[in-house]
Amino acid sequence: MKRSSLIVAAALVVATPVCAQKPTATKPEAIWRATCGYCHGSVPGAPELRGIGLPEETVITAARHGAPGMPVFHASEISDADLRALARWIGRQHTPLKTTPVKTAP
Ligand code: HEC
After folding, report:
1. DSSP state of 43
2. What does the pLDDT average to over 44-54?
3. From ligand 1's centre to the CA of 75, what distance in Å?
4. Cβ atoms within 10 Å, residue 28
5. How many Cβ atoms are within 10 Å of 37's Cβ, its own excluded?
6. CA distance 80 to 31
7. Average of per-residue pLDDT across 51-70
């Protein structure tokens, strides 16, 4: 892929959650970016969870109970349905997406 198309692809991926105000297919990704991705795959000690076929229950248990260095996420923060969708989404990722915020052209 050419560099220019890579940039366009990255811009699309980054721009999508911003538009996703209503529940859409991209919601799990938006939740990931807002609540998980700034640690997982981004800081030392928080392992990348995508692309390893992580079971849904592992994700749900970790979110509801926390882990060393990881906060608990209550149902008031992420609903059961959203968490299940997020867990499914994480388990289906093949390659980690870039989670670092990228400045997109106006
Ligand atoms: C503040 C940083 C931080 C945030 C935010 C965070 N985590 Fe974690 N998470 C961690 C760290 C650090 C570990 C590793 C704990 C350990 O080494 O035992 C971890 C571990 C995990 C594990 C592995 C648990 C296991 O049994 O091996 C899962 C799954 C997980 N997190 C899911 C999530 C999900 C889903 C979210 C978002 C809803 C999230 N985390 C948000 C820091 C974070």
Report:
1. S
2. 92
3. 16
4. 24
5. 22
6. 13
7. 96
Q: Ligand 1 mean position to 65 CA, how many Å? A: 10
CA 45 to ligand 1 centroid distance, Å: 9
Query: Domains, the chain, ranges and CATH?
Result: 3-92 (1.10.760.10)
Beta bridge partners of 70: 67
Mean pLDDT to the nearest integer, 72-84: 97
State the pLDDT confidence band at 65, using cuts at 50, 70 and 90.
very high
Residue located nearest, by CA, to atom 7 of ligand 1: 70
pLDDT band at 26 (very low <50, low <70, confident <90, very high): confident
CA distance 104 to 83: 28
Atom of ligand 1 nearest to the CA of 61: 29
